[in-house]
């Protein structure tokens, strides 16, 4: 699978809330081959501060060679990204990792919580190119409060997939989390759940999928130093006792493959 290091010019900066941002980057080589669920490693600073690139899911790509990332400022690297300006350039490396494997014969249920909503737009667009999967499918997005989700809703409505939302403070959609919503709906027969978010959320979804006998793919997070299998810093235990590298074998796994802390 090809990978590229590009000096990507920032063509748009959107601020959705105090801490949440979306960047559009001109990155034609990565855009040409990225798949939903894959990620890029971005050098956030100039020089050695911070030294390591930071991983971000590819939020969406476009045919004019753009990629987008959706992120929250949580520390040194993402704070720097929160202050970039249109016209500046960032070093972007990718696409990396194994993305979601879309099952063409199975209705799709997409569940994104917190920053796990980032890869869901790219995935929803890919799924909705397969009309029979899209028409029976649905997306559930969850966040702490309205501003984390509301600016993305038009993009999902445009695709035409059924959308549910949940917020911790009840400011948009269901007052609670995405797992509550998943429990409250009738899952389409023979569906596949595609999910991304914090580990307790993914563990809850994996459990629900197992109880309902449906396939579940999860995109997991890990602290990553290299993003390409060199540092062994991103290992995740598998059910069989072995360890997977999130950067190489993931970030998307079959939920059944992983060992969950429940
Ligand atoms: C495959 C993958 C895809 C990701 N996609 C996105 C995305 O689309 N949008 C987004 O906002 N974030 C995403 N993340 C998380 C993002 O990489 C981290 O938030 C970022 O690296 C933090 O860098 P920092 O320098 O700002 O924080 P630091 O100053 O390094 O750390 C600040 C805090 O964030 C925690 N942290 C650091 N790295 C991670 C991590 N990888 N996962 C969880 N917590 C972390 C630290 O433990 C610390 O508490 C993704 C992570 C992975 C592994
Ligand atoms: S991040 Fe270095 S091996 Fe995965």
Please give a structural write-up:
By secondary structure, the protein is α/β, with parallel strands linked by helices. It has 2 domains: 4-96, Beta Barrel (Elongation Factor Tu (Ef-tu), domain 3), CATH 2.40.30.10; 108-257, Rossmann fold (3-Layer(aba) Sandwich). It has 8 helices and 16 strands. It has helices at residues 28-33, 76-81, 120-128, 131-135, 146-159, 178-184, 199-212, 246-249; strands at residues 4-15, 20-26, 39-43, 54-57, 60-61, 66-72, 89-96, 108-113, 138-143, 162-167, 174-175, 192-196, 215-219, 235-237, 243-245, 252-254. The protein is globular. The two termini are 35 Å apart. The site of FE2/S2 (inorganic) cluster has 12 residues, from loops.
Annotate the secondary structure layout.
Layout: E1 4-15, E2 20-26, H1 28-33, E3 39-43, E4 54-57, E5 60-61, E6 66-72, H2 76-81, E7 89-96, E8 108-113, H3 120-128, H4 131-135, E9 138-143, H5 146-159, E10 162-167, E11 174-175, H6 178-184, E12 192-196, H7 199-212, E13 215-219, E14 235-237, E15 243-245, H8 246-249, E16 252-254
Parallel strand pairs: 8-9, 8-12, 9-10, 10-11, 12-13
Antiparallel strand pairs: 1-2, 1-7, 2-6, 3-4, 3-7, 5-6, 13-16, 14-15
Count of β-strands = 16
Major sheet description: 7 strands, antiparallel
CATH superfamily heading of the largest domain: Nucleotide-binding domain of ferredoxin-NADP reductase (FNR) module
The class by helix and strand makeup works out as alpha/beta
CATH architecture classification name of the largest domain: 3-Layer(aba) Sandwich
Oligomer: single chain
- The CATH topology assignment of the largest domain is Rossmann fold
Distance between the termini: 35 Å
- Helical stretch count? 8
User: How many domains comprise the coordinates?
Assistant: 2
Average pLDDT metric: 93
Point out poorly predicted stretches: none
